[in-house]
Amino acid sequence: MTSFVHTEYPAQHPGVARAERAADAFKSATSAFDGARGMAALLLAAVVSALLVVANQVIDTWTDGHLLSAWIALWVLAFAAIALLASPARRAAVGLRASYQAWAAGRKQAAEDDKLWSLALTDARVMAEISRAMSSDAARDVRGYY
Q: pTM higher than 0.85 for the full model?
């Protein structure tokens, strides 16, 4: 007598499913931290550290009697700089990132134009198509269509 055993196994390992859910949760949590925010934090840290270096140089010239008050003043300056410069640093970082992306897009477009032009110099069909497109644009400009 023959009997068949049908066992139901899950299609996916529970540990793998749990790890994928954890990775998705981590990915959604880190999506709030975009590149501009990280760059702003880095810029803010650089400005505050420069202020701290200058304040430390000033403190080193003071006598030992005022050292505790100088360190208190240094840390007040540090925390005030962090509080006051966080928003301008974020705006500067966003502006720098946008200008870099525009520059990179312009460089990419120029490289593509150079590649097309070098192809057009070797292929008459491409040159004719570029010529037609330029004359079509010129005719549109004359008629006032933009």
A: no
